[in-house]
Amino acid sequence: MDDVVSIDTLAAVAAVALIAAVLAGLLPRLPVPQVVLLLAGGILIGPDVLALGTPADVRVLADVGLGFVFLLAGYEIDLRLFREDAGRRALLAWAVSFGLAAGVVGLLGAAGVVESFLPIALGLTTTALGTLLPVLREAGLLRGRLGRYLLATGGVGELLPVLVIAVFLGSQGRASAVVALGGVAVLALALGLLRHGVREGSRLADVVRAGQNETAQITLRGTILLLLALVAVTDRFHLDAVLGAFLAGLVLRHWVGTAAPLLESKLDAVGYGFFVPLFFVYSGMSLDLHAIGEAPLAVVMFLLLLLAVRGGPVLLVHRGALAWRERCQCALVSATALPVLVALTEIAVRSGTLTSEDAAALVGAGAVTVLVLPALVVTLARRAAEPSPQPSPGGPVGPGR
């Protein structure tokens, strides 16, 4: 009965989520973001430390939380962004990253260091935009010009690997995967076009507008239905479920428009208030510390490759568009990977294209990026926000004065 939720484990997860939020509020200059506290709390209550519960106890709710992570990530991305300089540079950087990853992993495979090609190469190009969103929003980094480059870089690093996973690493043939992927896209488009059927001034439009608040919450219920429907369809087609959630966010941004100005705050309340922190605590509980501890050198190798293969091209491609500090922030954001990496390794191990040892090392490296790199991004933002020291009225004071 893996689908049964344990109330004891759920209470422990809720306690970790609350404590992480309180600590983040009491210690605003804490060098790590709240996501790190949630992952660490999950490790603490997980089977490898205090053993207060197992990941299976809350897996169903964590799956919904994962859906919310990618829905909110898709909702943040405006597809028009990819017609701008930020989007074009993000696409070029990802293409360079994938080429580098293919070459490096090919050499490692020829040397016998790794046994799998496509899953590892693809894993080195992923970005955990959904994981980073709470951190970037708290630090105020999604606003302004830098925010558009960060969103474009993260969106490309999340969406393109998911598409490749769905086509090349799924449990069915490639041709059927492409057909299924097209079917999901058509469904998403059809759901988006439904918005035009709700004409202003019509009875249905009046009902939707009147039911946005109070006990009806029509738009919020419709959003959750859209999320669950697309996730269910992708699961039915044996595609990665995060694809459905990401598409749901993209569709929702177009579908809602300005018709429900309060919807975003409601999604934040439901997602960040419960489901998203639950997913991150679950991710901490799921980390196999023993497998990671048995291959520390592989973890370090994949960590360095993530920084070089994913972050390096971003650093170079954004020359002339961003200042050095902003380019460093973009590169660190691009190299942060965990949720897509976890999904990729699970699918690849299940399909027999990735060994469990390489999967554990990849996930371990991804966990380190989530634990370390977002904190560096926030630190750079805080240093940029600090006022520069003003010279004294009498001028600089030299030695001996």
UniProtKB/TrEMBL annotation:
Record GO biological process: proton transmembrane transport
InterPro entries: Cation/H_exchanger_TM, Na+/solute_symporter_sf
Keywords (A to Z) from UniProt: Antiport, Ion transport, Membrane, Transmembrane, Transmembrane helix, Transport
Gene3D superfamilies (UniProt xref): 1.20.1530.20
Cation/H+ exchanger transmembrane domain mapped to chain residues: 19-379
UniProt key word NADP: no
Protein name as annotated: Transporter, CPA2 family
Family: Belongs to the monovalent cation:proton antiporter 2 (CPA2) transporter (TC 2.A.37) family.
Claim: Transport is one of the keywords in the record: yes
Compartments, as annotated in UniProt: Membrane
UniProt topology in membrane: Multi-pass membrane protein
Source organism of the structure: Blastococcus haudaquaticus
GO MF annotation terms: antiporter activity
Gene Ontology CC: membrane
Source organism superkingdom: Bacteria
Segments crossing the lipid bilayer: 6-28, 35-54, 60-79, 91-111, 117-136, 148-169, 175-194, 215-233, 239-257, 269-285, 297-318, 330-349, 361-381
Any Pfam family: Na_H_Exchanger
